[in-house]
Amino acid sequence: MLKKKDKYVTAVVGATGAVGGEMISILQERNFPIDKLRLFASERSEGKKLEFRDDEIKVEVLREDVFKGIDIALFSAGAQRSKDFAPFAAKDGCVVIDNSSAWRMDPAIPLVVPEVNPGDLKKHTGIIANPNCSTIQMVVALKPIHDRAKIKRIVVSTYQAVSGTGAKAMDELLEQTKSLLSFQEVKCNVYPHQIAFNCLPQIDVFLDNGYTKEEMKMLNETRKIMGDNSIQVTATTVRVPVFRGHSECVNIEIEKKLTANEVRAILSEAPGVIVFDAPEKGIYPLPLDCAGKDAVYVGRIREDESIPSGLNMWIVSDNLRKGAALNAVQIAEKLIEFAQ
Amino acid sequence: MLKKKDKYVTAVVGATGAVGGEMISILQERNFPIDKLRLFASERSEGKKLEFRDDEIKVEVLREDVFKGIDIALFSAGAQRSKDFAPFAAKDGCVVIDNSSAWRMDPAIPLVVPEVNPGDLKKHTGIIANPNCSTIQMVVALKPIHDRAKIKRIVVSTYQAVSGTGAKAMDELLEQTKSLLSFQEVKCNVYPHQIAFNCLPQIDVFLDNGYTKEEMKMLNETRKIMGDNSIQVTATTVRVPVFRGHSECVNIEIEKKLTANEVRAILSEAPGVIVFDAPEKGIYPLPLDCAGKDAVYVGRIREDESIPSGLNMWIVSDNLRKGAALNAVQIAEKLIEFAQ
């Protein structure tokens, strides 16, 4: 358990990445109670300086012995680095909130979305996992419906932004677009195929069952966060040429029938959700509008008459914020709330 | 019924549009047995000349009395023009193959995908409807599965290219992209919101039930083409910043269980379908690769274990070709095959 203090020595591990940068911005915006902020990255970024409040903070090289005296470390430096370093942090009394997939399915590690299962934080033993971006926004929108009508099955297709892959992928989309507009050759370094003006039905690697890891995360993480292994999920995850903001087309089968209006009413009162649903006025969530925002936006709410109790909806959120950095900071805030 | 001839006087109505242009190319590529080709458009395009084989053909203004002596007319000039002019063409003995939505759900008018329901052509009385682009590619891929295992329910999410809206929408995506790259203001004329680097969950207008017309077409047209009103379909149709090639994420519930390998085998022998499905080698259909091609490409075929007998697949095709112009020309070819 985190000890109650006025201010916390806080670290961002992977500070020079797309999510790391967003973590620093969000700590600043939300006036997080920081005693001292320390920034870590790989040797490549050593000596680099990043702005925080009115300071410039030097990026330090991550080592096993750096965590003494750090209260909270937000990790976003990939699964391998997290496996290698998070246990050392935890051993030195630092609470790690890890954005990678390294610990998410470990039964001993809480996997937390503060609006959904904040209580799971109380069981942590030094490491807390931040879920996958596409899962977070989906469960924020679906948990209030599950509580009212019990979700039996979810069929989800995603439209995921390149920033989910990282800063290099954002550059790749930009460079490919520029090349195409100037009739030059397109280079693919980050993705196996051109992403500009294209859709790639692959996110992460393929497993033996034909699904990608990303698709299986949407099943496994949803069950763990919702605390209900009876929920069925089948997912197809697709990368689209959008810089920021994941969209999800979600079809659910529920046990108790709900009308579209009832769902709008339930979600209007749900934490972290904004219902943005007046299609006749051209109002529905767009990734472009949600970029830089904190909420999970839900629109296109419709009854699905192909089954007795079904619903369709369109769920959009900023993958770098609620899908990653913001959720991690919110976990830290909740830990502070629970601190004794 | 079309009378058997060696060559047919053929017309393209809406010759200067995106689909019209594609119709002219396809008639040429496939060496369609044309006696004389006549091209029609609105007064705006009068006097314009278009190339066909080694000729230049003058675009004529569409009038009610132009159809005498024309055997086959491919219409792609919008629903209103089709309602206004197709009956005059039919009265004068011309067979109309209409790409608009004007006649599709008329019980007296066949709605045809040659790979799926060619027999329905025999019932025509002068007008034949070409289905909606997103429906055509889906039924080409699903009909062989339906014949083997009976499809009970389809949940489909689309990723549709801007060329589905027409040539102006392709210009809009290009212009918006250029503006963004040069930090200039983005203008939206065709779509209600920016399409560049964005996803718009709206195609066509909204109906009272919260679905768009495009979404309801995927239910109604699928049932009519498959000749089975028991099939349930729920659709969400989304515009993505892709120039050409519609992608569809399709989940189906079937009566008889099929493995992914069985589905690959069935589809490998299906007319008009190419199975492109070796994800471990990075092989799956991409809209960019399918642009300019004739087939419906199917990949990401997986068993859906969230229900007893379910499947997921990713279906991609060129919306201007199989989704519109090619299907219309194939209908004409089938009519010629049936001609007596």
TrEMBL record, chains A, B:
The keyword Repeat does not apply. It holds the Pfam family Semialdhyde_dhC. Catalyzes the NADPH-dependent formation of L-aspartate-semialdehyde (L-ASA) by the reductive dephosphorylation of L-aspartyl-4-phosphate. Substrate binds at residues 160, 239. Homodimer. It comes from Candidatus Magnetominusculus xianensis. The active site is at 133 (acyl-thioester intermediate), 246 (proton acceptor). This is Aspartate-semialdehyde dehydrogenase. Its EC number is 1.2.1.11. Residues 9-124 form the Semialdehyde dehydrogenase NAD-binding domain. Phosphate binds at residue 104. NADP(+) binds at residues 16-19, 44-45, 163-164, 319. Belongs to the aspartate-semialdehyde dehydrogenase family. It catalyses: L-aspartate 4-semialdehyde + phosphate + NADP(+) = 4-phospho-L-aspartate + NADPH + H(+). Keywords: Amino-acid biosynthesis, Diaminopimelate biosynthesis, Lysine biosynthesis, Methionine biosynthesis, NADP, Oxidoreductase, Threonine biosynthesis. InterPro entries: Asp_semialdehyde_DH, Asp_semialdehyde_DH_beta, NAD(P)-bd_dom_sf, Semialdehyde_DH_NAD-bd, Semialdhyde_DH_dimer_dom. GO terms for molecular function: aspartate-semialdehyde dehydrogenase activity. Pathway: Amino-acid biosynthesis; L-methionine biosynthesis via de novo pathway; L-homoserine from L-aspartate: step 2/3; Amino-acid biosynthesis; L-lysine biosynthesis via DAP pathway; (S)-tetrahydrodipicolinate from L-aspartate: step 2/4; Amino-acid biosynthesis; L-threonine biosynthesis; L-threonine from L-aspartate: step 2/5.
